[in-house]
Amino acid sequence: MARVNAVLLSRGLQIVVLSFIWLFLIVGTLPAQSSGFYDGKTVRFVVGTSPGGSFDIWARILAPYLSKYIAGKPTVIVQNMGGAGSLIAANYVYNVANQDGTTLLVPLSIYLNQIVEDKEVKFDVRKFNWIGSQAKEQNLLYMRADSPYKSIDQVMKSNDPPKCGATGVGSSGYIIPKMMNEVLGLKLQLVTGYQGGKEIDLAVERGEIHCRGITISAHFGREPFDSWHRKGFDLHLLQTGDKKDSRVPEAPTVYELMDTLKTTDMRRRAVRVLVAGGEFYHPVATGPGVPADRISLLRDAFSRALKDPELLAKAAAARLETNWSTGEQVQSIVNELMDQPKEVFDIVRTVLVK
């Protein structure tokens, strides 16, 4: 009897082992799911700006490294779809592109377009799947050092306020001075219509205007600003981060200014909404219908790519900062910005709507 039981046990073990072998073989022949989805595929970065700008440069640096860390190593290409402040690209990725994880959006601060109820907006920024962002970028307000305005306090007390240059509505050169006027009670004069930042800087050098709002990274490490700083040509009066940037320790933050001015909660929130786009600069997103497992795969590949030493070296050579954020962090910020009282959005609209 014992021998019979041993034989039956041996046969039982054989059946179990063979079952596992067959299961392994069957699973191995099934179509690959998300981990193998990208085999032989082409992934497109749809960049919402024209070629040559920082958003375009960033996408082209990231492309081969995203491919490197996506299972299946798809070909990753960059397609520029500029126009309407990235709205054309955003509408395309949201409504037209395949919702399979092969089309990635690199937009400007399109959440502001939704807040001001731009009629061209055909999306909800909360429903994009945010993959991550390359940097946290804040702005500063610079002023000619030989002007009468040595501090924000002097600007506020002046009967003849300084002139700040901007390309047009929506640019940082426009938003920063207009925000300071509408929300904080300053009286900066806005001179718009310049073709680009270079033209504004030249106008400052010629003495036509006194000041400009600009991203901090753009203001350091290149001309004409390197020469300006050596000569003491400009001063830095304000910065938009919640913490001081080490490159401009002398400039108060907008939050410190609001503390001094005892700015109301609703206005503080409005300022937060206006400047928070810098917390997810050069973001990457997919459309709303992409499966969750592919979102997870893309977020993981993005995070790994941003730690790659070769990518970091190339970004540094291009003077692009890489204090990046995860997709989950960007998604949380976007949801927070869009979940504000109507009064806050009304204040924001006074800044952004001409």
CATH superfamily of the largest domain: Bordetella uptake gene, domain 1
Radius of gyration: 26 Å
What spatial form do the alpha-carbon principal axes imply? globular
Class by helix and strand content? alpha/beta
Number of domains: 2
Number of helices: 16
Within the CATH hierarchy, at the fold level, what is the topology of the largest domain?
Answer: D-Maltodextrin-Binding Protein, domain 2
Poorly predicted sequence stretches spanning 5 or more consecutive residues: 1-34
Approximately how much helix is present in the residues? 40-55%
Biggest sheet character: 3 strands, parallel
What is the C-level CATH assignment of the largest domain?
Alpha Beta
Number of strands: 11
Order of helices and strands: HHEHEHEHEEHEHEHEHHEHHEHHEHH
Beta content: 15-25%
**What's the rounded overall pLDDT mean?**
88
From the N-terminal CA to the C-terminal CA, the straight-line distance is: 95 Å
